[in-house]
Design brief:
Blueprint lengths: L1 H11 L4 H21 L6 H20 L4 H10 L7 H21 L7 H20 L3 H19 L6 H29 L7 H21 L3 H20 L1
Helix pairs in contact: 2-3, 3-6, 3-9, 4-6, 5-6, 5-7, 5-8, 6-7, 8-10, 9-10
């Protein structure tokens, strides 16, 4: 270990300022010194934090494209067969509430950043499902309703933190409930239709990783229980693929 430390420290002590600043903002001064400057992998709390941050960043990165295959399948087929609008409606509502709750609570972006990216992709998918179902007017109402809900949730003068906490508890239920219509649709139709396996299995891995990052960085049982329940139902959906 001493030989490795001697070889690595000349690099870690001379990192470019942008890299150093980014690492400090993620790990904090104490863990940056322990893991990067002192090269001490035996510091278990800091090592867990680093793994959690790495997973969080990885999840956010993957979430930027996780629903793209689903969007492309819908556009290519011009059909929404096997894709449940109700599932996406409930999930998007859940994500919008969770996003507002996390932002207003001031939690680290690495613990919830994918929520915004996935929610935006969900809106596109939901609009396409309505469009291909011949319900263009309903698509407009859906988008307008989300915009109004978003304004209210992020505005403390409209929805205070106490009410938002209750809504977050409900968001966990919504997130779980959002999987049920999709599971039922797949079972009823006897196949997954235009449902993307890439999205389903990435969701499964992401929800499992989020359980770990939440345990490490966020002391909030409302969020933790939501991820646990989501993982279990994602596992059911993955088993149907």
């Amino acid at each position: 270990m001493d030989a490795l430390r001697s070889a690595v420290q000349p690099i870690t002590h001379n990192l470019p300022h942008p890299v150093r600043d980014a690492a400090i903002s993620l790990l904090g001064d104490v863990c940056y010194k322990s893991l990067i400057l002192d090269v001490d992998p035996t510091n278990t709390p800091c090592l867990k934090l680093a793994v959690s941050k790495g997973l969080g960043i990885g999840i956010i990165g993957a979430s930027s494209i996780v629903k793209i295959p689903q969007i492309l399948k819908l556009l290519k087929s011009q059909s929404a067969e096997g894709v449940s609008f109700l599932s996406y409606l409930l999930e998007t509502a859940s994500y919008l509430i969770s996003l507002a709750y996390n932002v207003r609570q001031g939690f680290p972006f690495s613990t919830f950043g994918e929520t915004a990216l996935i929610a935006a992709q969900n809106v596109v998918i939901a609009v396409l499902v309505l469009q291909f179902g011949g319900k263009s007017a309903a698509a407009g109402v859906f988008v307008a309703g989300l915009a109004a809900a978003g304004y209210a949730l992020f505005n403390g003068s409209v929805v205070d933190m106490k009410l938002l906490s209750y809504l977050q508890a409900g968001a966990g239920v919504l997130g779980v409930a959002s999987k049920a219509p999709q599971i039922w649709t797949v079972w009823q139709q006897g196949g997954t239709g235009q449902l993307s396996a890439f999205a389903v299995f990435n969701y499964l891995a992401g929800s499992l990783s989020r359980i770990f990052t939440t345990l490490q960085e966020v002391d909030d049982k409302l969020i933790l229980y939501g991820f646990v329940a989501g993982f279990l139902l994602n596992a059911v959906l993955a088993a149907q693929m």
